[in-house]
Structure formats: C-alpha cells, structure tokens
Design brief:
Blueprint: E1 7-13, H1 26-40, E2 48-53, H2 57-68, E3 76-87, E4 93-96, H3 105-108, E5 109-111, H4 112-121, E6 126-137, E7 167-172, H5 195-206, E8 214-218, H6 219-233, E9 240-245, E10 250-257, H7 266-272, H8 277-290, H9 296-312, H10 315-326, E11 331-333, E12 336-338, E13 342-343, E14 350-356, H11 359-362, E15 364-368, E16 373-377, E17 381-386, E18 392-402, E19 405-416, H12 466-513, H13 519-525, H14 528-554, H15 562-601
Helix pairs in contact: 1-5, 2-4, 5-6, 7-8, 8-9, 8-10, 9-10, 12-13, 12-14, 12-15, 14-15
Length: 606
C-alpha cells in the first residue's frame, strides 16, 4: 500500500440545507472532513482525496461522474456520503444536497441509482461505498408509501456486479429506519454527532480497527470495528454491509504489528527445566542475550520463556528471571519534553525523541492523549510536534505501548497569544494661529470689557507626565533585557559550577596524596566554596529572571511582535536549561561537603 495514483477517495458531505425541513448537520460534516484528512495521510490511508461540501445536486452529480471515469483495473476507489438520505414516494433512495427540495428529488437530489450505475460502469478494480445517512420518506401528507417498512439501503446497491477486478463493497450506518418527512420529523433526526463516521475515523487514525494486527486495516476489519462501536454508543442503530470482494481491500495502514514469537531451541528449552539450579540460571543468561536479537520473533520467544520462569521457578531463580525481563523495557530519551514558548498560529515546532534499548524495546507505538499533540515514528525514535492554534499552557503526554510494556513521555508547551496592538496615531502639532487683521482703535467707552470666567468651568485635561509616556517603552525593553541578563547569569553559573568541580577534584587529589590530612582542610585551601556560592546565586537569579520574563509575555496586551516573542522564548529556554543543571550540581557538591564535615566532627577520618 503506497501513495501512488491508484488510490482515490471522494468525500461528499452536506451540513447546510436550504429547505427548512432538513436538519443542519454541522458536527457530521466536521467528522467527514476529519475522515478525509486521515484517508489522505500518506502514513495511514494514502488516498488521493477530494472533498465536496455543501454543493448543489448538479455539482455533486458531475463530481461523482468525473470521479468514476477514466479509471484502471489497478485502481481502488472509495466514496463516502455524509448527509440526509430521503426515500421517495415510489421507494427510491436519494442523497440530499444543499438545494434539495423534497418535492423535486429527481432534479435537486443525488439518486442512489445514479451512484450505483457509476460504480458498475467504472473500470476500477475495487470500489468501496460508505453511507453515513439518516433516512426519511418524502411522502405527501395523506399518501401511503408504496415502499413501506425499512429503507433497505443495501437493496439499492445489489442485484448486479459492480464491475470486474476485486469487486465492490457497501457499508452503511443504518439499514432499518424510516422517518416521515411530514411534520418536520426528518428535521429532528441526527441532531447529535455522527457515531458512524467518528468510529471509522478513530479506527483508521489510531489503527484500533486492525483486529488481526497485521499492520493493515481491511474493509472487513473496518466494518466489524465500526459495527461494535456504533452498537456500543447506540443500541438502536445497526450498521450493515454488503460486499462482493475477491481478496482483501485495505483502507489504511496500522501501527499495530503483531509479533509471532519463535520457539526457543530444544536444548535451551531443556535447560530452562533442568533440575540443576545453575543450569537454569545459565539458561536465563542465554535468554537475556536472545532478547536483544534483531529478529523480533526470536526476541519475543525468549521473553516468553523468561516470563514462564519468572512465574513458575523457585524464588531466587524467578527473581533473576524478573530482573532480566526488567532490563528490556520501553525507554524514551528524554522522558520529558518542554517546548520553548511559541506565538499562536506559528509553524508547529518539532523535537526528536530517541528510543533506547534493543529492537524489541523499541518496537512500540505512540498514542498521544491530547488533540494538540502529534507523534510520528522516525528512523531512531519519534518526531514530536504541537499545534499552535489555541493559546495557553499545554500539558499532555504520549503513551508508548509495546510488547515489553508501556512508558509515558510527558510534554509541556506554552503558546503565547498574538498581541493585538492598535496603530498609534501620529502626534498632532498645534498650528500657529493666523495673524488677525489690525482693527482701528475704539474710544475707551466703546471698548469691550472682558467677561468674567464661569464659576464652575470644567478642569483642563491633565497633560501626560513623562513617566506615563515612558511606561510602554520601558515595558517593551524590560523583558528582552531580563532574558539577556538571565542568559548571562546562567552562563556564569555553569562556569562557576565547572570551576567548583575542578577545585573539588584538586582537593580530593591532595587528600589522597597526604593521608594524614583531612578533606575539609584541602577544601578550605581551595576556592571551591567561593565558586559554589557564586554559582548558587547566579543560577537562582537566572531562574527568577526567566520566570519574570515569561510572566510578562503572558500578560494581555503585551507589546511584542511575533519575532520578538520567538527571540525572548529562545533566550529564556536557553537560560533555564543552563541554570538548572548548574544549580543541581552546586547543591550536590555542597551536600557532599557538609557530609564530609559532619563525618570529620564525629571522629571519622575523611
């Protein structure tokens, strides 16, 4: 199964209807679009996917006709409908489009017979049809339907062979429902999200539909998985299928790979049951070595033999077998990922995680427990990325499940909201008043006397102080400066920690050369304590500045563009990951020194 020009999918979904009698289906359309993404994923479905959403009937009909035309026997086609299904007065089935009118189904809806004809005429080797529809009858009031009872969807797609090749298959969400269109009852159907499409999406995405764990999801696997999920969610809904397939048709890849263990050699099997204890312990060593074999079936066979000994042998032999089993486990490195702060809607950042140990330990599949978390298998481990569509602090994990056990990879990230700063208006410069014309002088008795000012004149607006004008500018400079200073302090703490280690090594060497002296004496002669104090102070200050800078970035209305946010995030991330190890090392050295002093005071010659 490869991404080539032989796998094609058409997803037809309608969630908005012009007719008031048809219920809007927004959640169902979202599920269909998500299914299209999984089908088009090169690592999962590997289909060339086309999506037709909220189009009128004539557009959908044309797209279906074009989709089935010009195919080859090597092609695999998949068509998925997510919409209302309407049964006409004469019992014919139609798929509703955005412009469907119940009284004009022939011209405003897509006939099931038309779809069947296209499936039967195509030269494609395999054709899969998935129908996620709620069905009703477009019967005039007072008219008895001639095709009463169940909708019988599968009857519309049976009765003749759909072309050659490996054949055809139809899977429908329900085949035993009939709703009257009158009194707007059909408008009330399927107000909830589509269980059918959701189950198909989840089964293909996570590989849980791969029942036999052969790494591929066949049509039969998908149908049985969807059937179980739908019946569990809604016992009144029964998915159905009809197929005429020659061999398996695969819908997707799966990361679930079942490893068939190989039996261990007969002489080794005999050694595991030998009455001599030392012989059985020697068998444990051989089985432990076989667990590192590159052939996973051989490694798993050895593991099962060790598990048998751990459960059935005498106590200390069983403990030794258990220790050998514990040495082969799922070991991601690192076990905790912390992404540096990233601005909202920026490209997804990526980090690599290595899987340590032999091939059997590395044989595991990632299962993210958050929608914003992505994990893709790489050559030596995992490529982990995060979605940046929603701001806030993100915390989640990736569960790594393998044949030797499970492990959890913890992931932390911070998506910063984009600052919406209003454009600043240019300061207005007051214009000088125009020179007034010189008026002739008036006699004193005709001169206008100045009017007294009103007693309650409104106060003049306060002029902005220089401090208020400088506040946004100082805030804009404070955070980058804090980040730069934090990096400088963190680098200083690392240098001091290294110097303290060198000084401690010199003191230990001098103590070994002079066995009559004490370690406390030589530490006092070296500058180790001074280095430790400087290291502790600079590391703590660096971490405080990192915390303050990140807090400022999270405040609403932070006046920083995306480029500045990324730079500050990189600086704070660097400072944090330099200061933490330096602080830890300094504390450990200080504790060791205090223990040496305590032992010396208690008479122990250290």
């Amino acid at each position: 199964m490869t991404m080539d020009d032989s796998r094609h999918a058409l997803v037809v979904t309608t969630d908005r209807y012009e007719d008031d009698g048809l219920k809007q289906l927004p959640s169902a359309a979202q599920d269909a679009v998500a299914l299209a993404e999984v089908l088009g994923d090169p690592q999962i479905g590997a289909f060339d996917v086309q999506v037709v959403r909220n189009e009128p009937a004539h557009v959908i009909t044309r797209r279906i006709n074009k989709f089935f035309s010009g195919r080859r026997p090597s092609d695999t086609l998949l068509v998925h409908f997510s919409c209302h299904g309407i049964k006409s007065e004469s019992g014919e089935l139609y798929f509703a489009s955005s412009d469907t009118e119940p009284g004009l189904l022939d011209s405003t809806a897509v006939a099931a017979d038309f779809v069947r004809q296209q499936m039967s005429r195509t030269r494609a080797g395999s054709t899969i049809l998935c129908l996620d529809c709620c069905y009703g009858g477009a019967f005039p009031r007072g008219v008895r339907a001639r095709a009463s009872g169940d909708v019988n969807v599968l009857e519309s797609f049976s009765g003749e062979n759909f072309g050659g090749g490996r054949g055809w298959a139809v899977m429908t969400a329900s085949n035993s429902r009939e709703y009257a269109f009158e009194d707007a009852q059909l408008a009330e159907n399927r107000a909830k999200p589509s269980v059918f499409t959701s189950a198909l999406y989840e089964g293909l995405k996570d590989g849980t539909a791969d029942r036999d764990e052969d790494g591929l999801v066949s049509f039969d696997d998908a149908y049985h998985y969807v059937f179980d999920q739908v019946r569990r969610e809604n016992p009144n809904q029964t998915p159905s299928c009809s197929a005429d397939l020659q061999g398996d048709v695969y819908l997707a890849r799966s990361r679930r790979r079942r490893i068939i263990p190989s039996p261990i050699p007969d002489d080794l099997r005999a050694a595991t049951h030998n009455p001599d204890t030392y012989t059985r312990r020697g068998a444990i060593a051989e089985l432990r070595a076989r667990m590192e074999n590159t052939d996973l079936s051989i490694a798993l066979g050895a593991r099962e033999a060790l598990e048998e000994m751990a459960h059935n042998d005498i106590h200390f032999v069983a403990e030794e077998a258990s220790r050998a089993l514990g040495e082969i486990s799922v070991k991601p490195y690192p076990t905790h990922l912390e992404f540096e702060p990233v601005a909202q809607h920026e490209p997804s950042p990526h980090q690599s995680v290595r899987l340590l140990g032999p091939p059997l330990a590395r044989s595991c599949t990632p299962h993210p427990n958050q929608d914003w978390l992505r994990a893709v298998e790489s050559s030596d481990g995992l490529d982990v990325s995060i979605e940046t569509s929603a701001p806030g602090h993100l915390s989640g994990g990736i569960v790594l499940k393998g044949v030797v056990g499970e492990a959890v990879l913890h992931v932390e990230a911070q998506v910063l909201p984009v600052a919406e700063t209003a454009p600043t208006a240019e300061p207005s410069v007051p214009k000088a008043p125009a020179a007034a014309p010189v008026a002739p002088e008036l006699p004193p008795q005709l001169e206008e006397k100045p009017r007294p000012a009103p007693e309650h004149s409104p106060p003049a607006p306060p002029r902005p102080t220089p401090h208020a004008e400088r506040e946004p500018r100082s805030r804009a400079l404070r955070v980058p400066a804090s980040a730069v200073v934090a990096v400088g302090l963190a680098v200083t703490s690392v240098v001091m920690a290294i110097l303290a280690v060198v000084a401690a090594a010199g003191a230990i060497d001098s103590r070994v050369s002079d066995r009559y002296s004490t370690l406390d004496y030589w530490v006092g002669q070296s500058p180790m304590i001074s280095y430790l104090v400087v290291c502790l102070i600079t590391a703590v200050l660096a971490l405080l500045l990192v915390a303050l800078a990140r807090r400022e970035l999270r405040l609403p209305g932070a006046p920083y563009p995306k480029g500045t946010v990324r730079s500050i995030g990189s600086l704070t991330w660097t400072a944090k990951h330099l200061a933490r190890p330096a602080l830890t090392l300094a504390v450990l050295l200080l504790i060791a020194y205090l223990i040496a002093i305590h032992l010396t005071f208690n008479g122990v010659h250290v």
